[in-house]
Amino acid sequence: MHYLRGFGRFWFDFIVGDDWRIAAGVVASLGLGALALRAGVPHGLLAVLVAVAMIAVVMVTVLGAGYADATRPEEHDEGSHMAR
């Protein structure tokens, strides 16, 4: 059972990684792509749309994280500043 739990943790960490929003966005993009395929969207157009959706998800997540870091107040550590 220990090995099975470790195997599951590995795949969860590998797929989700540092940001669950990217993994969820990719799954949503693929799911919407599957629905569009069943609806009869041409394969070439569908490939482009799914690729653009995945790139958009990653960009929004990365830019959102950068914005959150930029708006977060800086933490000052008294012991680590250098004398000027």
Number of helices: 3
Gyration radius from CA atoms, angstroms: 20 Å
Which stretches are poorly predicted, pLDDT < 50 over at least 5 residues? Answer: none
Major sheet description: none
- The overall pLDDT, averaged over residues, is 83
Amino- and carboxy-terminal Cα gap? 57 Å
Strand content: under 5%
Give the helices and strands as they follow along the chain: HHH
Helix content: over 70%
Oligomer type: single chain
- From the spread of the alpha carbons, the general shape counts as flat
- Find the count of extended strands (DSSP E, 2+ residues): 0
- The structure class reads mainly alpha
Can you put this structure into words, describing what you see?
With 84 residues, the protein is mostly helical. It has a domain at 18-71. It contains 3 helices and no strands. α2 packs antiparallel against α3. The model has no long low-confidence stretch (mean pLDDT 83).
Helix and strand arrangement:
Elements: H1 2-16, H2 20-38, H3 43-71
Helix pairs in contact: 2-3
Please give a handful of descriptors for the protein shown.
single chain; mainly alpha; 84 residues
Short description:
The protein is mostly helical. Helices cover 75% and strands 0% of the residues.
